[in-house]
Design a protein that fits this description.
Blueprint: E1 4-10, E2 21-31, E3 40-42, E4 47-48, E5 52-53, E6 63-69, E7 80-88, E8 103-104, E9 114-115, E10 122-127, E11 130-134, E12 138-139, E13 159-167, E14 173-182, E15 192-195
Antiparallel strand pairs: 1-6, 2-3, 2-4, 2-5, 2-7, 7-8, 9-12, 10-11, 11-15, 13-14
Length: 196
């Protein structure tokens, strides 16, 4: 799963000594209009997340708000967001911070699984009503766990989707079947699939 890690350090001074809880909000961003030159504008309301306890008590260094968010929190894959934070205690809260730089929630190109040289998709007609596909291993680079950066980076489990479409006489295409595959429990990736 793709996740966003939000961390905000607090100055260790009296002006923030009341801060025992922190809160994050996020807002989806998109092009201002079809003719805009890459400028992003808000395209939805702020989504406010629950208050959480700040990770260190007064007198310890550092004091930081550290949270990780994903699709289960309302974020959508492929969408760009800005984030903002505020701190407080049981009785008062600070103003919201200035929004962060816009961040795209997606798999970085450098992390996308890639096939090795000669890893073309092979196709075999098994019968008049079924076709078998097979390929060499698709391997993603090792990645750290956002929820626990102290863990050693490891290769993530992958999900695979194969779409098979029929070529029409008109030159168009019609979706025929979709096959979903996953890595095995021991981490071994699938190498083939059959479609009827």
């Amino acid at each position: 799963a793709v996740r966003v890690h939000v961390e905000a350090a607090l100055p260790h001074d009296e002006s923030h000594s009341f801060a025992h809880y922190g809160q994050v909000r996020f807002q989806p961003m998109g092009p201002a209009d079809e003719t805009s030159s890459g400028e992003l504008m808000p395209i939805g309301d702020w989504v406010v997340c629950p208050m959480v306890e700040i990770s260190a008590s007064r007198g310890q260094e550092p004091r930081a708000l550290s949270l990780t968010f994903g699709e289960e929190d309302g974020l959508e894959l492929g969408q760009t967001y800005v984030f903002s934070v505020r701190v407080g205690d049981r009785f008062r809260r600070s103003p919201w911070s200035v929004g962060s730089a816009a961040r795209l929630l997606d798999v970085p190109a450098s992390m996308a699984p890639r096939g090795g040289e000669g890893n073309e998709l092979q196709v075999e007609a098994v019968s008049i009503s079924s076709v078998r596909f097979w390929w060499r291993e698709l391997r993603a680079p090792a990645a750290a766990e956002p929820c626990d950066p102290s863990k050693a980076a490891a290769r993530p489990s992958l999900e695979y989707r194969m779409d098979v479409s029929r070529c029409l006489d008109s030159g168009g295409m019609e979706r025929h079947a979709t096959v979903l595959l996953e890595d095995a429990e021991n981490g071994s990736p699938p190498f083939d699939a059959a479609v009827h």
